[in-house]
Amino acid sequence: MIPPNASLVKYDNPVLVSRNTDKKTPRARALKVSPGPSTATGPVPNPPGKQKPTSVDAKAAQQTDEILNSILPPREWTEGGQLWVQQVSSTPATRLDVVNLQEELDRRLQQRQARETGICPVRRELYSQCFDELIRQVTINCAERGLLLLRVRDEIRMTIAAYQTLYESSVAFGMRKALQAEQGKADMEKKITELENEKRDLERNVNELKGKCEQIEKRAQEQRQVEEKKHTEEMQFLKRTNQQLKVSPMTGVMSHDCRSANQQQDFFLNMDFLSQGCMNINQSKTEKLCHMTHYLPIKNVNFIKIIDDRFCIT
Fold first, then answer.
1. DSSP string spanning 1-56?
2. Which residues, listed in sequence order, are joined to residue 15 by a DSSP beta bridge?
3. What is the DSSP string of 196-210?
4. Cα 158 from chain centroid?
5. What would you report as the CA-atom Rg of the chain, rounded to the nearest whole angstrom?
6. Which parts of the sequence are annotated with region: Disordered (predicted)?
7. What's the number of CA atoms in the CB half-sphere (13 Å) around residue 83?
8. How far is Cα 174 from Cα 171, in angstroms, rounded to an integer?
9. Which of 78, 79, 115, 277 would give a disulfide with 120, using CB separation of 3.0 to 4.6 Å?
């Protein structure tokens, strides 16, 4: 072990413990010790006058020492192959000791450059030592009050340890979540890439289908235009033919079916032949006209009337 650092807690002079002892006792005064160099951080009080202590005072002092040792255990270290033990001081503190403690605290805070705000391990260590020294001073005067302050100190330390554990666990949790987020990020990026590729394929299919739809619409439009043109021409032809028949029924028929005088003569000869053939048949007038006009290329009411008047079909 190495010599402990200087503390704000007041300790007695270190004593050398014999190396022949197998077990270290809680109090060095009960061992065969030799006084060592003084390392007390505070002023060493003058030894009290030599008075014969009573049994009650000795018992109270022993009880106070035991309480102090339970609150602040003795410090031990090895130097030059020898074991040194330093007990906490049981000397009552004066007003001057408290003032010196405050000045020493401020000096060490400035010397070790402790931060005034925020989390600072140096400031926490120095204030913990100052609180332990106050507990020591109070315990010497009133052991019960010292034990109560000990409970307060332990509660504060337990709270700080809980906060530290919570901080460490939160840091570990945050790191774990960060790693999961990184892994999830990689998975999401991969999924995004796959979805983008699928989107491009779908867009290509949409463009192809749009092209096919445009081609189909174009062909349908062309076909519709051709059919409309054909229908228009057919309607115009029928209208023109109907107009010609309305102007001159007989002339229209003759001009359409019989272009010359010979053709007209042949036409009426054929009609005579048909009329003679129809006269020999026992048919009604309507049936005879239907039979004769059946061979005509164009059926017209006026033309049928002309045939009826010419051949006198009865």
1. --PPPP-SS-B---EEEPTT-SS--S-GGGS-EEE-----SSPPPPPPP-----HH
2. 35, 85
3. HHHHHHHHHHHHHHH
4. 37
5. 66
6. 1-58
7. 17
8. 5
9. 115
- Evaluate whether 13 touches 43 at the Cβ level (below 8 Å): no
Cβ-based neighbours of 120, under 8 Å, separated by 6 or more? 114
CA distance 193 to 189: 6
253-263 burial: b if 16+ Cβ within 10 Å, else e: bbeeeeeeeee
CA-closest candidate to residue 143, choices 57, 61, 26: 61
For tokens 């010497």, what's the residue?
140
State how far Cα 193 lies from the chain centre: 18
Closest CA to 278 of 293, 297, 265: 293
d(CA 13, CA 35): 7
Q: Round to whole Å and give the CA distance between 289 and 313.
A: 8
Specify the residue for token string 């337990």. 158
User: Checking DSSP bridges between strand 75-79 and strand 33-35, what pairing results, if any?
Assistant: unpaired
Exposure on the CB side of residue 96, measured as CA atoms within 13 A: 4
| Residue type, position 65, single letter | D
CB 39 within 8 A of CB 11: yes
The DSSP result for 143-164, as a single string, is: HHHHHHHHHHHHHHHHHHHHHH
User: What's the token pair of residue 288?
Assistant: 């005879």
Q: Would the pLDDT of 57 be above 60?
A: yes
Q: How far apart are CA 306 and CA 292, in angstroms?
A: 12
**pTM across the whole model:** 0.47
